[in-house]
Amino acid sequence: MQPMLSVQGLTKTYKGGKQALSNVNLDVAKGEILALLGPNGAGKTTMISIICGIVTATSGKVLVDGFDNVSDYRQARGLVGLVPQELTTDAFETPWDNLCFSRELFGLKPNPALVEQILKDLSLWDKKDTRIMALSGGMKRRLLIAKALVHEPQLLFLDEPTAGVDVALRQDMWNMVEKLRQQGVTVVLTTHYIEEAEAIADRVGIIRGGELLLVEDKTTLMQNMGQKQLLVDLKGPLSCVPESLASLGFVLAKEGLQLLLNYRGNDDTLDVGAMLSAIHEAGVEVLDIHTQQSSLEEIFIELLQEAS
Fold first, then answer.
1. Domain 5-222 - what CATH class?
2. Which of 82-86, 195-199, 213-217, 266-270 has the lowest mean pLDDT?
3. pTM recorded for the entire structure
4. N or C: which end of the chain has fewer CB within 10 A?
5. SS (H, E, C) 100-130
6. Beta bridge partner(s), residue 24
7. Contact status, residue 149 vs residue 106, Cβ threshold 8 Å
8. How many angstroms separate the CA atoms of 96 and 102, rounded?
9. Neighbouring residues of 9: CB distance < 8 A, sequence distance ≥ 6
């Protein structure tokens, strides 16, 4: 099946020699949610700006549902919605007029029912006739999302959409993203809240220094690159790890009240049953046994450290 977005060999070098992107290749399937993670200055916003036709690439190609975003600009841009980081709206307009005008900019017929539904979905209906200058920061952020949706895009970019907003608004936004997914809309988001990427994304891309380090299914990434820990809570403290357990990799934690074993999430050679038998044979009295796995944030930090 043709991807909704195909980025091929994308490179951007600014005057003065600063390279913002270096040979980025990426395909995003229709209806997929991709979280793009990276530190400030990694190239996330530059890539999104090129795809949306705001910035010109030095080399490479971008296809949106098969349309080249340079030679088929009108068709490609009509399929794309963008929620930028900056709050840029006409302060003297009302949300209703702003959305109606934004829809007309794409050459679409008026659709008051759609505008009403979007405003209601984003809890802005009661503010539809209020001047934008009088809206709170969170409401202006919601309005940016409404503007990106009013021309019914099939590919939506959310560039740090929840930066500086409260928890309730953040949750509303992610509920909206899930609703869009159900409607078949493809979503690419950048975020500093990695726990949100962990919660809603299908795949995760990690970018650093203009290079796309990897794009991986979220679950596979966490299984293959994350660490797991086998945690054995003890009834009484140990002064040292029994030699038979130390040879297996166990170390002491919590002032001798816990045995801890780190292992890779994809390590199929680990025999938990044998580990438990070894603990029993060592005469260690066990209170509880449990495991835990690395978060996406821990994997993200580890990848960036390896790339530096």
1. alpha beta
2. 266-270
3. 0.74
4. N
5. HHHHHHCCCCCCHHHHHHHHHHCCCHHHCCC
6. 10
7. no
8. 10
9. 23, 24, 25, 59, 60, 61
Predicted confidence (pLDDT) per residue in 167-203, tens digit = 777 777 778 888 888 889 999 988 776 777 777 889 9
Identify the bridge partners of residue 64 per DSSP, sorted by sequence position.
Answer: 5, 67
Phi then psi dihedrals of residue 257, to 5 deg? -95, 5
- Is residue 89 pLDDT above 70, yes or no? no
For residue 187, give the amino acid letter: V
SS (H, E, C) 142-203: HHHHHHHHCCCCCEEEEECCCCCCCHHHHHHHHHHHHHHHHCCCEEEEECCCHHHHHHHCCE
Q: Using CA atoms, how far apart are residues 156 and 178, in angstroms rounded to an integer?
A: 12
Confidence of residue 16 (pLDDT cuts 50, 70, 90): confident
CB 202 within 8 A of CB 32: yes
State CA 180 to chain mean position distance. 15
Nearest to 143 by CA among 74, 96, 75, 212: 96
Pair of tokens at residue 239: 């002064």
Tokens encoding 190: 């950048």
Q: What is the DSSP string of 4-34?
A: SEEEEEEEEE-TTS-EEEEEEEEEE-TT-EE
Same fold, 5-222 and 227-294: no
Nearest to 119, CA basis, from 127, 131, 109? 127
Domain ranges of the chain: 5-222, 227-294
Beta pairing class for 186-190 and 155-159:
parallel
Burial of 86 (0-12, 13-18, 19+ CB in 10 A): exposed
For the chain, what percent of residues have pLDDT higher than 90? Answer: 38
Give DSSP secondary structure letters for 220-266.
HHHHHH-EEEEEEEESS--SS--HHHHTTT-EEETTTTEEEEEEETT
State the fold for domain 227-294: Alpha-Beta Plaits (3.30.70)
Could you tell me how far CA 43 lies from the centroid of its own chain? 14
What whole-number distance in Å separates Cα of residue 96 and Cα of residue 143?
10
